[in-house]
Amino acid sequence: MRKINTTNFSIATRTTARDINRRIALNVIRERQPISRADLARHMKMTRGVVSVLVQELIVQELIYEGATGEAARGRKPTFLHVRTKDRLAIAVDIRFTKTYLMLCDFSGRQLGIEIYDTVFSVPDFTKDLARRVKKMLKGLGAGAVCEGIGVVVPGMVDQRTGRVLNAPALGWRGVDIRSKIAAATDLPVHVENSGRACALAQLWLEKAETAGQSFVYVSVSDGVGTGIVMNGELIRGRDHIAGEFGHMPIDLDGPRCMCGANGCWEAYTSNLATLARYFGWNLSQLSPKHMKEMEKNSFTVLDLISRARTGDAKALSAIRASGRFLGLGLATIVNIINPDAIYLAGEITNAWDLIEETVRSAMVERALTEAASRTPLRITPAQEYPRLRGAAALIAAPTFAAPRVA
Amino acid sequence: MRKINTTNFSIATRTTARDINRRIALNVIRERQPISRADLARHMKMTRGVVSVLVQELIVQELIYEGATGEAARGRKPTFLHVRTKDRLAIAVDIRFTKTYLMLCDFSGRQLGIEIYDTVFSVPDFTKDLARRVKKMLKGLGAGAVCEGIGVVVPGMVDQRTGRVLNAPALGWRGVDIRSKIAAATDLPVHVENSGRACALAQLWLEKAETAGQSFVYVSVSDGVGTGIVMNGELIRGRDHIAGEFGHMPIDLDGPRCMCGANGCWEAYTSNLATLARYFGWNLSQLSPKHMKEMEKNSFTVLDLISRARTGDAKALSAIRASGRFLGLGLATIVNIINPDAIYLAGEITNAWDLIEETVRSAMVERALTEAASRTPLRITPAQEYPRLRGAAALIAAPTFAAPRVA
DNA sequence: GACATATTGTTCGGCGCGCGAACAATATGC
DNA sequence: GCATATTGTTCGCGCGCCGAACAATATGTC
């Protein structure tokens, strides 16, 4: 029941049907590979004749290739089809407060190399340094393949259309046109995205999860709380490209001050910093980057806190559970607003899921509007897989597989 | 950049292109009527030849008709095309705590008749009474035209798929299969929807507003706060059909008790009841349907409060402005989460827009994450046009014009 | 009034593409 | 050697967009 936008639509031409079906075929191959033409035809409910032609076109476009011959109980053996991903590369960059992460991967998201180094806050120096590292990485690990672009993830507000960093308080960047700067230095297409939305993109495009329903919210708890909304298989970016910021919805208008300037944001109650602050008895209202730096120096993280909780530190356990409760209350609000098919959770605190699941769940029941809604599936995603970097890569790889625009 | 759902898609057949273009043509005619074939061809960037055939098919399907001949400076005069709406009718029903609203209208949303009567809470009696009124109305005002269905709007949780009222506290209905009951009594197709989402549907399908961007949130402030989200021209319903409930996001976890059972919901701060409670000095935490009944008896409404504010009652003005401030804070959260192209506002309090606009705006600036976001257009919709009833009608009329499902 | 010009709406051949059926290629079992 | 089964290709058919020609209809101008 979508309404057609009569000021900005695409009519169907005589090649539209083919375009649509070719793209569907590519996606079915991608998700079910290896797969034969005959199987593809059955899945698509088309005749083998048409599928044969579609496949031939995809082979000519070098989007797929024929692999080994499969086994069959009787009759002619099938030729398996695969999506060409190994020699199509993307560079992923994740700029965070302390470290910058740089990854080279192929279009399936397979990691070929990774570098982690101290973040350079000066934009010209950062760009110069990054270009050097990218060139070296491509010459070494990326030899013999084509790099199709660089995806950059920034903690803060970015405009994906223009590639400008509007405001990244953790980096001290405001109104920085990071896209053209990196593009000029590396001579590669660059896409910039916010960290929460990048994680959602990674989940949508690079994970083999059951995103079948294709409406979900990704919630990543780290220094802040990054979130991204996917509706009907499409990332929500919004008018000003700031959509999805559940982290700054209020829990209490008179609550502790948040890094965004407002008071009582969800993030201020459930972020790693909040969890640690509870343990050390800091005043939540007076948290600042200063505390983040201090934590970094002592290299005491939420993971350490979880260890202490597991070895019987009651204070640690109660700090973690407190964050878990606020996490659940926020998730309930997400459920009431978006009512997604699932919520994906990431971040250090998910390593303590066995310790907090009950707390989170009961907090959800407390505020969810229906019983069914409170049972929204929560899916924990392992943090060690660098979801932000995978999201950066998805920025480059996704256009190849996206649905064509029609009507 | 939408991802194709490979477990549930529609391939393009040899009639798909025609289906798409025919539907686009219908919508362009609907929004620009009267329009000639030649103009239609220019708007659609197609040849007149194809458009002629499309138009002929739409005429055969009785979706459009040829009207008068237009004027032209030179050359052959154009034949104007119109969408056939006058003899296609829908019944709209809005069941509220005190009154039930029943409207007969055509597919353009033009009102043919309206009845307002006391709500009958017993479901069998309600159904019987409704069926009687509907039959009478169709016999009288609807003579000579076809009624294509009944749209029903309920204040509370409904499952649009099954037509069940899950929980409507204001009516005391829980788990009532209202759809089959009304369908059986009237022998007409019935669709049920929640009031906030219905308003959004009305705005999307029946108003000639600039919903061009086609992502917006509708916020209706009445006894409660009803909201509906439209993303990319499609109403968000969610997994359990409860999506869009911004009314129950928290403002303060320890805030006043809300009718939903939770504490500190936005609704509890900015609804009509909250506004009146502030004026009369009631404890916000102890509000109940009892107070609503009392207000009804005294027939003192927010409109009366606004009159008092205009005639110099400082206490009235401050009560209204307090609600305005909370309204703005909630809108800021909506902007941060959805970042819509616009927010539509309805409800009695919008009659005092000149008194509260500044308060609302400054509250938005307070919590919106970027300056651009805080400038999200707010559009006031006049309450006397019965948005909920129009939404109910849209439930019936929309499928005729909706985009075909592809890929 | 004849003719040039302009605009709307229709018709027709060309070609892209899905559909179904026939056919070639290839494997197994008896 | 032959029946059977399965994969993958080819081809005629009809639908539908495209461009161009053409018919219909109106207004000026001489």
Write a brief caption for the model.
With 407 residues, chain A is of the alpha/beta class. The first copy, chain A, is 41% helix and 21% strand.
Structural description of this entry:
Two copies of one chain form a homodimer. The first copy, chain A, has 407 residues and is an alpha/beta fold. Chain A has three domains: 16-83, Arc Repressor Mutant, subunit A, CATH 1.10.10.10; 88-201 and 389-401, ATPase, nucleotide binding domain (Nucleotidyltransferase, domain 5, 2-Layer Sandwich), CATH 3.30.420; 208-380, ATPase, nucleotide binding domain (Nucleotidyltransferase, domain 5, 2-Layer Sandwich), CATH 3.30.420. Chain A contains 14 helices and 15 strands. Chain A is globular and about 70 Å long. The two termini of chain A are 13 Å apart. The mean pLDDT of chain A is 90. At the A-B interface, helix 1, strand 13, helix 11 and helix 14 of A face helix 1, strand 13, helix 11 and helix 14 of B. Chain A binds a DNA duplex (30 and 30 nucleotides) through residues 11-18, 21, 36-38, 41, 46-53, 72-79.
